Fold each of these.
Amino acid sequence: MRPILIFLLILLTVPAWAQDLGTVLDANREQIERPSRQTIGPVIDKIAASGDGAVAFLEAWGDRSVGLTGDGRFAILREETATDAVTGAAITAEIDMLRPNSGVRGLIAAALVPAQLSDPDPARRRAALDALGRNAAPEHLAALRGALDDPDPDIAAQKLRLERLLTIGFDTDPAARVLAIESFAGNTASDVQARLNPLLATTRFAGDNLPAGANIARDLRVDEDITRDEAYRLLVETGLARARLTDEAQKSALAQHIENGRVGGVPVNELNDMESRDRAYAVLADQGLVQPAATAAEVDAALEANIFADVYTEPSAEVTDAAREALNALQTRERLAQGTDIALDALSLASIYFLAAIGLAITFGVMGVINMAHGEFIMMGAYTGYVVQGFIANRTLSLIVALPLAFFVTALAGVVLYRLVIRYLANRPLETLLATFGVSIALQQLAKNIFGTQARPLTAPDWLGGSISFSEMVSISTIRVAIFVLALLFLALFLFITKRTRLGLNMRAVTQNPGMAASMGINPDRVAMMTFGWGSGIAGIAGVAIGLFAQVTSELGQAYIVQSFMTVVVGGVGNIWGTLAGAALIGGLQKWIEVLNPANTLAAQTWMILFIIIFIQFRPRGIFPTRGRFVEG
């Protein structure tokens, strides 16, 4: 007797609806065959609580993979294989598939959430969270709250975050929703904004009195916040006023009912104002000849008698206030992030211009030579890097070799150019400009003959291929960071050479007063040659750096020569700090103009050149003018 009593006691303690899957399916067969969203909910709950096989059945039912055999058995069809939904036995009989509608499938998905969120497999729990994030419903909130405890810390954090997002959208307690909104303070994630934005959605209200408890976004004043036509259209749409004809429609209707020179008893020659036309039209409407329409006086009276407002669709003012405050904070953070991102881009661009211009600043500052072939030295450096990568497969090692080799190649080219051309054109700036321009064209054609017209790849090492992110919206590529560091290194190297070496002392002496320098035993010609070679070599290194993110072609240098000259002129000829300031100014100005006019880069460059022209009218010797012969001249 004892075992029987214990079994009966267990049966009494089990809820009445906690039956096995087969019993539940048999008891609710008709509702499962023809489910209705209004009545199927309790049946789905019973199936979910029926134990083994329930989850598999619900998943298949939601996927429209459940059917009925001729003898009344429920079958699950997967990949053309049919099995009994209760026993799992194979089925070969013909199956009539069930087709639950989207509403029923939504209830099934909600019933599956607790099981999926507590599934032993972490992958299935993550998949359930992803599905909820994409398509959540109010009924999912309670299920998610019941599964917040998770052995995986990452999944537990995802569940808590999703619970707060669903609380914002679906919780019935305004205080809980406000707390959930405040918990995302400073979070600029797109899913957070997607939850907050609908809370501030509004509808236009028109009527004599605002609805009780309406959450008003703002009152609308006719002719200030809303036009008369729009306000009256709202009254017509809500049935509070008759439609108003347009002047053209009214005139057309009146013209169709002219009899003996009159319309509605009003002489035609008197229909030159709106009041007369309204009077005539009202007579025609009373006679049933035209559709009744509001007169101008009725429109004015209706607008005076009613109020207009934007009303939040969200009824709780506490929730909308919290959402508006959070979104305002997010917008502030976004603007700050965008500004920071633009500033980083401008700093990166300034670093590139500084590298491209520093060699030009050295040659122009010491010698006063306008070297139009400077851009081609940049191009030669980039092609040197490309050639080195053809021999050395390791990208890091090839870059280490390419930088000094590019310096040597372009420095040698600079020395040759000086010895063959520049030295014979001293103090003849126009002839020097024309000669170096011819050299520029010759070098471009030589590059085309050797490497062709197609762009050549200069691949960066993998460790330069990523980016450094400061937030969701602020990031900068690693290559640009490397170029910035390289620019700082060359700034330090330049300062060391000019301040701590004999070559630097000679350069400064020749820059300030070449005649006095020569009388002190300094060979200005030798100093100029070394300076020209050094400046050209730095251009070659800049070419390698630029080639890592730009296309290496024979026209590569032409894209930077104009900005390089502007950088030197704006900063101050021959002054390294001026070159740095000029690069920062040119890079920042170009980036901000591109932001204001992103669709037209040519217009951005035009505005930048106009700014430079205006700038040099007030500072003709640049930001940091150099003392010496350029001042005196």
Amino acid sequence: MARSSSVDMDPDVARRLFEEGATLVLLGVPQGTEFGIDCKSWKVGPRFQGIKMIPPGLHFISYCSVNPPSCGGEVGPKTGLFLSLKPRDLLLANWNPKEEDFDFSATQNEEEVSRVRANLQDLDPYLGPYPYELMRKWVSLTDRLSEEVAKNLQPLSGRVCAFSDVIPETEFRHTKDRAEQPRNDMACQTMREGLDRLPKMKQREGTQLRFSVIPEKAYPAGATPAQITQCSLDLTYALETVLNENHQERPLDLLGELQFAFVCFLMGNVYEGFEHWKRLLTLLCRAETAMQKHKELYLGLIAVLYHQLGEIPPDFFVDIVSQDNFLTSTLQDFFQMASGPGVDVALRKRAEKFKAHLTKKFSWDFDADLDEYSPVVVDLPEGFTVG
């Protein structure tokens, strides 16, 4: 594990982090394991026993178990967790080879933690320094994400997993239960038949990310056809529903959720995080009335997106976003609505600067005419209902 991050650090900063920084002691980690904290990851060597000089605050650690070269050297799925660290904190974890995961129960043992703290000087050569040169990047990606929001969004298990942990919906404990299931030893006539024979699966309890639920319908119950059309063009009703049900006291925490989803995807390889990020972004960028009401929320959104889009790999848009041109079309709607007469002047100017920045950085054309793709709004005859 590289130790160069402290070489170019300001001496005063280094001394302060040495005195006030948190320490993560990780014992028994197999050589070759991929381990990361925040924006940097490594393959650990035989001497690795943790990270020192960690700035207090919220952090995300991630890790992948790796088979030894004699067994193929395959890398396992990534697991991550958010940690909130205080000054001079010491967290102690042991690697569980059976679960291929960290066991933090030792942190609850005050006697064990005191023993390790007393021997920190001996452990120091085996502790890698926090990559402080990337601290500013990490803060820019999580400045709206509080410890409380992260705790409420992460799974009850505390682990953010790249692949869902699924189990059968029905436990076949008895021979009779298994006998009643479709037989798999007979040839399937169609793909659908084959899929129907597979056991129905569900995500293991406590492993689900607890994102805000976005309403399936963007309009209120009993809405008229005209109201349905309006709510589909202006997603304010759906956005306000999410805010009222999840972030009523602190609407700006929705930006923290946007950052949480982005970190889960970018650092944790969780595709569900990317999908939720897209859904939240769609709500925010296509809610014209809300844009006029929640000035601070939208000023914050521009700042969040500025840093997020600055960290995405260059080929990201080619591989994922450009498949349906999601980002450019969504932001085009945002910039169009942000230029409206009812929008705060400061927000309008900030949006114009952001639009110019993205146009220059990515060569995106936000002024292309999309009228031919716009939904057609019609007035239905009185008494006509949508069944």
Amino acid sequence: MRPPIASLVVLLLVVAALTVIGLDGVHVGQVPQAVLSDEQQIAADTALSVRTTIDVEASTLRRTAAVYPATSTSATTALKALTPGRKTILGSALLDPHTGRLLATGGKPVPLAGGDVKAASGHGRIRPWLVTSGGVRQLLYFARVVLSAQQEDANQDQYQASSRTERQWLLVVSEALPALRTYGDGRVAAVLDASGAVLATTARGTASPAAADSGLPAAAARAATASGRGADAAGSLLGTTTGSVRTVAGWAQVASTTGPGDTDGLGLVLLTSRTVPVTTSTADYARFALEAAGALAGVSLLLGLALHFLVQRPLLRLYLSAGRLSRGATEDEPTALEGLYRPVPVHGYGELARIGRALESLRRQLLGQSGPEEFPARRGPGYRALAVAGLLVVACWAVPMIFLLNRADATTAVPAPVLAAHQARTELAANRIRQSLDQSYTDLSDVAAGLPGLSRAAQTRVLRHTLADHKQYRSLYLLGRSGGITLRVGEVPLRTLLHVPDGGGITTVNTSGRIPAIAAYAQVRAVRGKAPAAGVVLFGEIDVKALNSILPRPKLGSVWVTDGHDRVLAASVGYRAFQSLPDSGLTRLVRAAQGAPGTAGTSNSAVLRTSSGPSVDAAAPLAQSGPTARLGWHVVAAEPAAALQIPAVQAEQRTMLAGLLGLAVGAACLGWLHVVVIRPLRAVAVLVERLAAGDRRTVLHPVNHDEVGSVTRSLELIRQALAERDRAARSGHATRPSRGPRATTLQR
């Protein structure tokens, strides 16, 4: 009996303490933590875009060099073939990696004085270098070009290691730093070196001069250096306060996420910053926490005292009275017999009062003062009603905490900078998808340009090599003029739309099924004077898993890619192909982001109220230009506001949690009390009333080893004594041998 009552009081006091701790931890500062976290994530997303651009440039150059046949021994001719009109290239050069001698140059001079090319070229893949030329920072990309003579010797397996080095060229290309793109009006983005010097910068919209805080680059560089190289570290910074606005910044290392990569060793840091209004909220959650905790402490003490005086003490007295009667009925000791002459006090109400009245009747029957007594069938409320009343008292505290108090307004709880940052991150997610699809189309176009004039066997080898080198493709195939597949490598195509498109780009080739089929396609030009190509259009079906893996980002929530009919093509969460968005509000948001026919549209965002609380949602068109612009696709992101560090939402969440904990504790402890005390008491009350009414046949079996079980055992002893007395009375004998005057009086 004592454990459930004590547990109820102690656990409710613990919930009260947790309420104070939880709500006191909600701080309303000048800049909400959610704003700082979002700026950090924007910096990390932008750094990822820069990293991807550098990795793609480096891998493209190495791939170009790897497939170059090197049939000519002229370095100048080879250099022109290796760099055919790439607009991003500032200068190029071919070197002898064994001696470091310059063999051919193109464009602007390549600044090689800052490093030892000969030493670096002897250790596998050469990572890009960050160099200075004319006061401008540039990136150098490297690739090895294997000469045909070496290939012939390799087939014969007769060449030496020294000749292997002599029969390679080293291709070096200089390019400017990747062009920065920043999202969100008023945001400034900059690329820094390890010392904090600004290498490139850009701004979106009308950026405030305060956003370009002069102390932030050095602080970001120091923070990145302290985190170590290649750790993909990121963080946030607070800048100066100007009037009613303050500068917030995020920084992130431009490094590889999967170990050594092309960006490791560059020491680049990406810094983003913008100004946000200073919060002037006066919400005092600490005072509310103390008031709520005090109320719950009062409720717990009230319930504890009520259960102590109404249940615990009466039951203990009843337990003692039942034991006294059982000893008087079964023992011949004078002290035991004296207990039969003391009336049974009737304490409490309900079941305990019923048991007490029945015990008093049994006492009189044992003394021979009365016979069996019937008890009325109509009874008042019992202890079950007390448990329900206790739960209602707890609910009076918990229900307002869950449904009424500290409720965040969906329209004002989320600060405007948080909503703007979520929209910017959605645009960054769209940019990542666009980069991936554009690169797939570019790679496929390069392959299609090399197919004309090749035999079918040679085309098959090229496609197989491309499939092995580009993991995003699941299938590559050539279409004939009639739309049939004339050549295929990889998995079985998913396409159900049979058509031969013009030009090139990205498209979907099915409209139903379990897997959306997204494909890049490019024309295969015919060569005059040669046999016609095996196909006229090259298709590369893109594995949708490759797109799904791009979408997830920390604190961005669920992300979907939808087609022009608002059907899901890819997502960061589980989905069915071509399903609608999971919420009608998201669909309306996408349609609001659609522009006029023929235009890409603009991104937008909103705070939507869902069944689980406010949700920060945004939709952005996939691309404004390029091969994916005319698709009409969108990227949609939805993040529950509860996952963001917004004071109003945190207060609502923790208030609801305190209410749920209090209600759960009350229900559990009172349910425990009902199971171990109240329900057994109800059963005992029925049995003892039957016993007092003359039922001597029903055996009373104690079920629990507690106070109620002891009362049941005592009642069973009383039943046996009464049954023995009744049998003796029928046979004309005394119930037991008499010892002393008290026993003689009992027999009489």
Amino acid sequence: MARSRRRVDTPFLVAGLATAALLAVMLYYPVGSVLVEAVFSDGRLTLEPIRDVLTDSLYFGDLAGVFAGESPVELLRSVLAGEASFGRFGFTAYQAVLSTLLSLVIGLPGAYVLANYEFRGRRTVRSLTLVPFVLPSIMVAAGFAAMFGINGPLNRALAAVGLPTVELMFTLEIILLAHAFYNAPLVVRVVAAAWEGVDTRMVETARSLGASPRRAFLDVVVPQLAPAVLTSTLLVFIFTFMSFPIVLALGGFQLATVEVFLYDRISRLQLEEAAALAVLEAAITLGLTYAYLHYERAQAATRGVAAQTRERLFARVDLERLAIAGYGVVIAVVFVGPIVSMLLASVLDANGGFTLQYYEFLLDRQDAVVGTQPDVAIRNSLAFAVGTLVLAVPMGVVVALATARDTLSARVVGTLAMLPFAVSGVVVGLGLLQTVVFGVEVFGLQLQVTGAVAIVAAHAVGAYPFVVRTVTPALSSMDDRLVESARALGASRTRALLDIELPLVAPAVAAGAAFAFAISVGEFNSTVVLVEGGDAYTMPVAVQRYLSDRTLGPATAMGSVLLVVTSVSFVVIERLGAYGGLE
């Protein structure tokens, strides 16, 4: 039912204006300041910083010559000869394409199994596809370092059977595997949801007209799945193109992507070059995000009304089920292995004996070589997460109220609200650093905040879209007659919200809060920019510092603490089941 137009009362107006002001201060103004830095120099408009990046072979390889005005003929010859270089942007896109393909290869069979087979634990497996939304990526890096390191379980197993060991750390292969670990569940979730909604009557009609099962699948099922596959492909590509902590921890600077170079330029205070990089990266990701939102709506429009009946997975043994069993083994190794390896590495010493020394290290408040106190990191993470809840949940609910109706204005607000999905956390951190942390003048007054306050703001910016995505579907599906009846009886719009709407969508709000908490605890990109030289570091930053110092024990112990904290959030979300907007 379409939502009727309602009079906006004062509390609603105040809440909307407050949310808009917070977003302006915490997101749009800081990000805008970074973009302006790339087109203004000494108070005058110029594209020189962007032109310098475009014509720098470090970033664009042989394509830089074309941007500088040279003939593209030589570039074409190099491409045909297989000798062309496309710099860091080319490498970033290359690893993102490979990561996306690997995520699809691993994820699509999982979507098929979830959509077509019934088995014990299926609901739990489906819930686990939420893991990428709540699992800190730096913790994933710690798990892969523990499993695929020179002394990890993989190399121990190879040595035990007399095979040569492999060194995967700081290789492209481990980055691709880690990206697949993180993003294949997204493919499973998005495509399985669409597969479950395939209209089986169309398949039956095709079969009755003489189509073979293969032809019916290609002609009927595939077109209905195409929007979901394209949506998940775009989403995974965006995430892997902007990937930062996984590349930084597992690839190092020799495999640096644009995001890592952006962070490096910020660390070196080369802010003009960093701003130009941010503009070019944002132009790419914003375009991809627009395409993602377009195809996401197309996917929702293609869901059918006659879902298929799922077969029992273990009803018999045949070739297909044997293949599924093999797939399950691969999934166990790729997805369970790193987590188990991290947990084991946190309680095993260099000789393989049981030890709690790494957890004692966390409790005893010892300083690591990198000067990071574990207790400070844990305390900061929890405090920042609480602050994020205070900001992100009300903001998310207000934006959800503004986008629950299917109108042009709601779509515009919804698109603007999803900006954090398209803009790098590093850029958000840089923007906050250049503005409210360094200080800005407002009406003659100097406004300046501490790094800790800026970190909470950055976390809230990254978390509130998840509140929006969980609450909006619940509001959209609500019967408007309930609110209209309350209004007819004299209740104000605010009273109707407090007495009727919020109680009915409380599970979705609670799930959004759990998402916000988990995202804050695991956030790394903006935090690592804002904590430079300060003591506002968090658990993910501590994990990265330990990994960079090759202190795997403390890194895995801190990663295990992160796993426990985010697992609590996951349990809350899974129990409430209010995550329809993330499908």
